[in-house]
Write a structure and sequence with these properties.
10-stranded mixed beta sheet; 6-stranded parallel beta sheet; 1 helix; 3% helix; disordered N terminus
Length: 212
């Protein structure tokens, strides 16, 4: 085990089969499970969990208290803020028109980011359900929820619940994760109260805001 990994092990729990490349930062209290591969330059905050056999590409930035389940693929140009949950089997993408080779088929295209690499931002508190595919050049809003098996092709607003292929808004969710209303959020204006925790929200033409 490398000296760098020894240093990480003193403040984090890292499985012996995990592969961490050079210049990887793992925050205190984080757990990295079996056969995880984290590429060079990736940054994970404190108190994170990365489930078995997940892959995190180079220079990916992940905040604090992020839960990444097993078999997740996070490509370059993805940024994940604090408190996000990414469920098992989720795949991120960063190129809308990928090709393996040049047009004459004689040369492999490089894997490094270029003008075709588009970023994805997952905002704080969001949840991405199992087996989702997340497109690029978009964001998933604060405390939004993406239902299992969805294909995300457009940005998701804060507190929206989206589902399907392509994913569409079907309601709003609370900070606590409970459904506050099921409807087309863009079509109404309403005041909402979470039936579970009592937090209040206002919806105006699809924009969900918290009410103090």
């Amino acid at each position: 085990m490398s000296t760098a990994l020894d240093r990480l092990s003193r403040k984090s729990k890292i499985h012996s089969t995990a592969l961490l490349e050079e210049d990887v930062h793992i925050g205190a209290g984080s757990s990295i499970w079996d056969n995880v591969h984290i590429r060079h330059g990736a940054r994970l905050g404190e108190g994170c969990i990365v489930g078995g056999k997940s892959y995190i590409a180079y220079d990916v930035k992940i905040g604090d208290r992020v839960k990444i389940n097993a078999f997740v693929y996070i490509c370059n140009a993805v940024t994940i803020e604090d408190g996000v949950m990414i469920s098992a089997g989720t795949v991120f993408t960063n190129d809308r028109f990928p090709r393996a080779t040049t047009s004459d088929l004689k040369h492999l295209r490089p894997s490094e980011p270029d003008e075709h690499t588009l970023p994805t931002l997952v905002r704080e508190g969001a949840t991405i359900g199992a087996s989702c595919v997340v497109g690029n050049g978009l964001s998933i809003g604060r405390f939004a929820m993406v239902g299992m098996g969805s294909v995300v092709t457009k940005s998701v607003p804060d507190f929206h619940l989206v589902l399907g292929n392509p994913a569409r808004s079907i309601g709003c969710v609370c900070r606590c994760g409970q459904l506050t209303a099921r409807f087309q959020p863009n079509s109404i204006s309403a005041d909402l109260t979470c039936p579970t925790c009592g937090l209040k929200y206002s919806v105006t033409q699809g924009v969900v805001t918290e009410v103090a």
